[in-house]
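Box 3.1 A note on notation
Throughout this textbook, protein chains are presented in two layers. The first layer is the amino acid sequence; the second is a token string describing backbone geometry. Keep the layers aligned when reading.
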Amino acid sequence: MQLTIRSEVAAGVVRLRAANPSPMTGSGTNTYVLHGPAGVVVIDPGPARPAHLDAILAEIGTAPLVAVLLTHAHLDHSALCPALAAATGAPVLAYGAADSGRSAVMQRLAAEGMAGGGEGVDAAFRPDGLLRDGEVLALAGLQIEVLHTPGHMGGHLCFGFGGVLFSGDHAMGWASSLVSPPDGDMGAYMASLARLAQHDWALMLPGHGEAVADPALRLAELTQHRHDREAAIVAALSDGPQTARQLANRIYTDTPAALLPAATRNILAHLIDLHERNIADSPHPLGPEVQFHLI
């Protein structure tokens, strides 16, 4: 049986990597335990695995768990929240439910029936308390800044702890993030990347994969990657109207077949963003199977 892997990744910060590796989660979901002078804070409890819960409780030990902070309501991050809260009595704090924070266009697309894809949305998730952008939380003797970073999901949060950025799934070292409408929004994603890049972070601790020692470089790489993808989409559309699926097959030539559905969702996110910026359009309601053309 695979077990949670423990690593000390920063002063007072322990990473517990859940045993849920996959093409979407990399080596597993990272839970972070912050040890403060007056207790403990947990960021992203992770998937609903009893062994992972045991590992978190063992790491907490006899210290009070003051709060559970959640970056976003995907099951690989949030599913263990109820069990951890029940075991400790700690409140779960997040931006909101899984559909919170959506832009007006994503709310409209969801109302029109657009389904998400690629990752498991925790539709049942409800936090005990709501967090808002710019708040500075005083928890367990620690100061933690709340940063609303929509893009991967509308209610995605990052957390700043001194020079450490807990970046959730918004920015990672091992891969780019999935942006799958209507939960994901490419325009919002790019704006959030730009916002994070304005800070002078010393270390980035993502929701999956290893710590990133040069956050500024990685944020710049992710930004350029998205610009390159957009340029490739616009170049392909210059040949004529195409669907997100057709574009993914054309552009993601080195991607394993199992990951092409996720690539298609990323392409769709770009197409919707291009539509919102009056660069591309479609004669049909926006969706993964409709053709887009350049304006």
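The mean pLDDT is 96. Helices lie at 50-60, 75-78, 81-88, 104-111, 186-197, 215-237, 244-251, 260-276.
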